[in-house]
Amino acid sequence: MKKKQINAIFSDYDGTLCSTTSVRGGISLVDTIPQELEQILFRISKRIPICIISSKDFVFLHKRTRFANIFSCVLGMETIIHNSHYSNNNEINNSCIKRQDLIANSHSLMDNSKLLHNIVEILQTHNHKDIIIEEKYTSNREILIGLTIDYRHLEDWQSFKENKEPMLRETIQRSINTNLASNISSKNRPFIQVYSSHPFLDVYGVECNKGLAFDSILLHLEEKVGGANVMYLGDSENDNPAFRKSDISIGIRSDIRLNPILDCKYMLDFNQLPLFLRGLIDNDFIFSENLLPNQADQMKN
Fold it and tell me: How far apart are CA 301 and CA 297, in angstroms?
């Protein structure tokens, strides 16, 4: 492969910059980027844009990825132009947010927010003790736009995925169908994002995916970097639309229990990512397969 100048890095967060083995709601709570990797990302962001495309909301991402120039939050439902900063102040204010854009009008999102709140109530009423419900809001905390039904904290979450997740999906879909107005277009309907091997499922207020998020960020970057050569880093099936749009696509393995089918050109283990990114910096952001650790074994045929 020819060498290619990288002008921007787009990256997923959970499972890519932060290991999927992180536990939420249990004894351990490790959901931040390792310090060595964070320092490298700050170095990179001073030279080229780093943009986060995540299913997490801005409140979650802001305090964990302060180096980011742009956030596309909740699978692209909200895009935020951000002033990167070192401050540990987690308060969100005008000094760190330049601009905010929503994928749909606020009225549609407000209507479907009621459906999402109803789903939370139903799941809580059914007393699903095995799951953690993560609610995702717009950056102003006014509109609920997504949910994650998370069970990665379970010791045997593979069994839960096979036996109980289908019933959860059925309950959620039934709630959506019962409460949804019949005249709503398909793109404005809530939908469920499922994963082949990851221990969670997502519910979003309107149609969205990381391909749309990728395009939205690229529009904001065009004036700054021109015809950008974009590298994308991700770890799950919902990253595939972004992998397909990127110039360099690299899948990250952070949990040996997971084996998703990824539409990426290259693969790296999570612990190899810092070494690779340092090499990219030293090579003035000119990508070469030789920068990949053990590249002969990592390249996909």
Answer: 10
Q: Which two tokens stand for residue 90?
A: 């987690």
75: left (phi over 0), alpha (psi -120 to 50) or beta: left
- Regarding beta strands 230-234 and 248-253, do their DSSP bridges make them parallel or antiparallel, or are they unpaired? parallel
- Residue that wins the pLDDT comparison between 88 and 9: 9
Strand boundaries in the chain, DSSP class E: 4-5, 8-11, 50-53, 70-73, 78-82, 97-102, 132-137, 144-150, 191-193, 200-204, 230-234, 248-253, 266-269, 286-287
Element (H, E) at 220: helix 210-225
CATH class for domain 4-103+209-298? alpha beta
Indicate if the pLDDT at residue 16 is higher than 70: yes
Which residues have a Cβ under 8 Å from the Cβ of 238 and sit 6 or more positions away?
55, 75, 193, 195, 202, 209, 210
Q: How many CB atoms neighbour CB 137 within 10 A?
A: 19
Distance of CA 223 to the CA centre of its chain: 24
Tell me, what's the pLDDT at 91? 62
User: Is the four-CA dihedral 15, 19, 23, 29 of positive or negative sign?
Assistant: negative
Which H or E element spans position 35?
A: helix 35-45
**Interval 23-34: pLDDT, tens:** 443 434 457 899
Q: For residue 288, what are its two tokens?
A: 């070469």
Beta bridge partners of 200: 150
Residue ranges matching CATH 3.40.50.1000 in the chain = 4-103+209-298
